[in-house]
Amino acid sequence: MAAADEYWNHNTAYHPWLLGLAERRRGRVLDVGCGDGLLVQRLAEVADSVTGIDPDPVAVRRACERVGPDASITLLHCRFDEFDPGDSGFDLITFVASLHHMDLRGSLVRARELLNPGGSIAVVGLSANASAADWLFSALCLPAVRIGSRWHREQSDVGVTVADPRESLAEIRRVAGDVLPGAQIRRALYYRYLLFWTRDTGPVTSRRTGWRPSRRA
């Protein structure tokens, strides 16, 4: 891949976290809403196999062009609620700026069903500002966001479909609490939140996940 195909934005800023999770598992990974395939390509370097799905045919075509022929990568044009993996489950399912395009509860339920025992769901998501705390946190992050974006030469428009988030972080926490008991959710820089949940395991430590627990704002 040419260096020109690499870029940084508020989503790719969290690729290292996801890659660390995939590398620890060395299993099957599903990237939901794979876009142009940059994360899929990176995941393939640390996972046994990667499947990327996206409802946008243009995005899937670009992803295919990016990754080229690779036996460890499968790219499919489909919606998540239509995706059929057959009898195989996944060891890690990732959503990067894609979950807010879908039905929140239904998508988390579906992801939970597709996990192998011990598998994990990792979300880099967007939430709507609804409370005073939401707006205050966004305002406090602004200086750091501007510095980070300038330092990394942010490429915000990479030609994928975007949408404004509907659910607030409080709503996301409520739904995740119902569907994924014990899910860890925290606010993050670049107007994102991080969600992490593992099926059929006890409490997850920072050492295993790269998670940095923080107090809820």
TrEMBL record:
InterPro entries: Methyltransf_25, SAM-dependent_MTases_sf. GO terms for molecular function: methyltransferase activity. Keywords: Methyltransferase, S-adenosyl-L-methionine, Transferase. Pfam families: Methyltransf_25 (PF13649). Residues 29-119 form the Methyltransferase domain. The keyword Membrane does not apply. GO terms for biological process: methylation. SUPFAM superfamilies: S-adenosyl-L-methionine-dependent methyltransferases. It comes from the Bacteria. PANTHER family: METHYLTRANSFERASE, UBIQUINONE BIOSYNTHESIS O-METHYLTRANSFERASE, MITOCHONDRIAL. This is SAM-dependent methyltransferase.
